[in-house]
Amino acid sequence: MVVAPTPSARRVLLVVAFGYLLASWAMNPVSSILPTITTDLDIDVQKAGWIMNGYFVLLVGGVLIAGRLGDAFGHGKLFRAGCLVFAVGAFIAVLPLDFAVLVAARAVQGLGSAMIFGTSLALVATAFPGPRLAWAVGILTVFAGLASLIGTWASTSLIQFTSWHTTFLIPCVLGLGITAAAGNLPSEGRTNVADIDWLGGALLFGGLIFLLLGLNHLHEGPETFEAGAPYHLTMHAIALSFLVLFLWRQLRAPKPLVRLKLLRIPRLSTGVVANGIAHSSMLATSLIIPFLIERGEGYTPVQTQQLLLVQQVSLIVCSLLGGWLYSRTGTPAIGILSIGAIATGLAVLGRVGAELPYTGLFPVVAVLGAGLGVFTAVNNTAVMSTVSADQRGFASGLVETTRQLGHSVGVSISSGVLQTSLAAAALPELGYREGFSEAASAMGLVSAIGVLVVLYPVLKSRVSPLTVPGLRYRPTE
């Protein structure tokens, strides 16, 4: 029997969902107005990239640590503080100041988003400890999709009548409103502040930041790519050094930031890896489709928006459906089939996507959106159900860390493949078409690996039924 959520649980979900929408507002709604910002500030494309990277650097570097801090201070308190920090960052961006201040404002927003994302799943798992968790996670995915739809529309509409600075006023007001509404969220601290491994947190923060910087340095052709090789190697070497020191610290610390033994839980370890894979594939799709439509096929940005709109609507609808279905059945087959749908959709795009008529792309992007919506609801629920209450912040932060790293990896792979094809093509149009096919095929292969990853705990449970949790949803209290 499924117990209906209490009114207080519904209120927690509503507040957290709006927080999810707030943090997601800093992504696509901002990237959609970058051309306007670059023109107004008279900056080049490389500098414009820092308007996004300034946000992602602190988000990726801080989200796992924020989750652990939530375990110590209380998830509700940290979530509320994150909404306020985000609102402050948005307010700074509203001010008519220079490029450096805008990047700093975006970094403040990234820090706020890390605090929001790092605690959201933990709060929802506390309010919905049973099978209804899958439905609740689906709601969060819906609100993230709504942020992309509504935020992009609002931002692109506002710049037609006023300055781009005004677009940041919406998340500023929204953040203040959510801060006021988040006063009574569950905030029980389950870990002593003295028990937090601050040195380990600093090492992890440094490793993730340098890794992200290495992944997001963009180039414009083979010559500049080769010239940038020392940069890439240096950033990755520094990141590796930090991460090795972090691992050493976790093995020696009496109370480590990350309990490495938790990663031995198949549903947890494979779930976070598959999470990164799924999101890397989908963000890569959002990157390469506009290039195919507008530069490879000669269509307009409006037609690109129509395709991406179908993808987002499919994601929103199917995330609800996937969460509801998983809450009723608990079968991992739903997650396996959904990431399989992502791999299949990308394989189709890689094989015949460049040859399909414009209308023929709609069902493919709808399948991709549906796959990610269902997979996110199912996979996040499975991950959160594997940990005890005092580790929910850690699991929440880990899910968001792999999601954001997946975004960076997906952009790096797809843009690199696309740029390589462009450099070798006789005509730019052919380069975009061939690059699209090769990038989609590459990400399809990555998604196929994701299918194998999510299959692993299922196959292991059949081999060792006494040591692995059952196939059905089983929350850990």
Task: Describe the protein's topology.
Elements: H1 7-24, H2 28-31, H3 34-41, H4 45-73, H5 75-94, H6 99-127, H7 133-158, H8 169-181, H9 198-215, H10 222-227, H11 229-252, H12 266-296, H13 301-329, H14 333-352, H15 361-384, H16 392-424, H17 428-463
Characteristic terms for this protein:
mainly alpha, 477 residues, Growth Hormone, Chain: A, single chain, 17 helices
Short description:
Helices cover 77% and strands 0% of the residues. By secondary structure, it is an all-alpha fold.
Alpha-carbon distance between the termini?
Answer: 18 Å
Q: Number of DSSP strands?
A: 0
Structural class computed from helices and strand pairing: mainly alpha
**Uncertain parts:** 218-225, 465-477
Give helix and strand order, one letter per element, not per position.
HHHHHHHHHHHHHHHHH
CATH C-level name of the domain at 265-459: Mainly Alpha
CATH topology of the domain at 265-459: Growth Hormone, Chain: A
CATH architecture assignment of the domain at 265-459: Up-down Bundle
Could you explain how this protein is built, in words?
The chain is mainly α. It has a domain at 265-459: Up-down Bundle (Growth Hormone, Chain: A), CATH 1.20.1250. The chain is 77% helix and 0% strand. It contains 17 helices and no strands. The protein is globular and about 60 Å long. Residues 218-225 and 465-477 have low confidence and may be disordered.
